[in-house]
Amino acid sequence: YGYSKEYDVERYYRDARVGTIYEGTSEAQKIVISRLLTGRMRT
Fold first, then answer.
1. Closest Cα partner for 10 from 2, 22, 1, 18?
2. Where is the Acyl-CoA dehydrogenase/oxidase C-terminal domain (predicted)?
C-alpha cells in the first residue's frame, strides 16, 4: 500500500508536502508572524 499516482490523494499529499517545504515549517511561519505583529522583526 502507499500513494499511487492513479489516485487524487497522492497529488493532494504531494502538493501539501511541497507547500510546507517551500514556504517553511509551520513553526517558523508562526515565529515570523508573531514578530511582525509585535514589531520585533529585524530588518
1. 2
2. 1-35
- Which one of 6, 10, 23, 27 is the catalytic residue? 23
Dig out the grid coordinates for 18 from the structure.
511541497
Q: Is 23 a known active-site residue?
A: yes
Q: How far apart are CA 40 and CA 21, in angstroms?
A: 25
**pLDDT tens sequence across 1-43:** 466 677 787 778 877 777 767 777 778 878 888 888 888 766 5
Per the listing, cell 499516482 goes with 5
